[in-house]
Structures are given as C-alpha cells and as structure tokens.
Give the backbone structure.
Amino acid sequence: MNLILLGPPGAGKGTQARKLCETYDLALIATGEILKEEIRQETSLGLEVKEIMNAGRFPADEIILRIFEEHLLKVKNQGLLLDGIPRTLAQAEKIAEIFKRLGMTVDAVIQLDVNDAELIKRLASRMVCKSCGASYPGKVSICSACGGHEFEKRADDTPETIKTRLEVYNERTRPLVDYYTQKGLLRVVDGMKSVQDVFDHIKQELSFLKFSQ
Ligand SMILES: [Zn+2]
C-alpha cells in the first residue's frame, strides 16, 4: 500500500504519519526530515540545500525529486507513506512518472482538512522537541517520540509567518488536490477532531481500498 499524506502545517501530519507507519508497516518518506538530516550531516547535497534556504528560497523541484527517488529506491519493496511530497502539481506529475517506471502505484491520497483559524491557533502555541523535531500542541515535559526533554518554538511559528505559509500552502496545494480528485485517489479527513478520531477515520477510508499486497 502506497499512500500520500497531504495537509497544511499544523494539521497533525507528523503524528498521523507515525501512527500509519506503525499500523500498516509503511516506510516513511518525509522529504523535510530527509533535507534536515542531509543539512545536519553536511553532505554535498545538504550544503547545497542550506545555501539555497539561507538565501530565503526553497530548493527546486529537481533537488527534491532527486532526494525522493534516492530514498524511494532504498525502500520501494515495502509499502510507503509520503509526507511533505508532492507539494506542487509538477512534483505530483513527476512522482507519477517515477512510480510508473518502477511498476508502482499510489493507492490513496489522504488530505487532513483543518481550517486556517484553527491552524494559526495551533501553530502559535506549538512546541518542538529540540532533539527529534516532534511537535506538541503546547508545553510538555518529555518527548514521547524520543524521550528528549528540551523544547523550543520554531522560529517561523509567528502569526505573520504562519499566515504567509498557509497562503502559500493553499495556493500551491489547490491544483494538487484537483489532480488527485480527478484520479479518484483523494480521501478528505476532518483534521479538527482528536488524534485518535482522525486516525480512526483514516483507517476506515483505507479499509475501503483493495490491495494486491
Ligand atoms: Zn523528541
């Protein structure tokens, strides 16, 4: 089973991604995390990306897709969950090409739907684990993902930048949502509910799918 998880920043994608990977034994391909790791390890790619981001730009599709395909080849014999990719229609089309070439298919695209006002509220109070990057809706004392106990606010979690990020996200994602709707793959899940309710809804959507594996 190969899934794509879509949702704006603050919709709870990371939490749901962890639960989905555990439950369905999926390999997670989270391009944001991969990029962070490349930067941390100062690989040639990481240094290239760091320079681009320091200049206030986003890495080009070509770089993102190169990283994506590299990781895909390592885990393609397992079911996959894509988080943070595709972000644009161009990326979605390219991923369809790569999958086709490798004899793979996308089985479902799950969109976590949360309204902007709620997202702004969530992001403004969000705390992030310093060691693993897991995010929490407010202050916590210990990270349930890694056991870390140091937390920070993300530098870009201010009301103004959150608004800009959501605008950019909505603008870029709309064509993507249309694309997957036309392909009959989109499943919209109400992300305003509790973590467990959202997860149960996703599981229910997935139970309707027919898999060869
Ligand atoms: Zn942690």
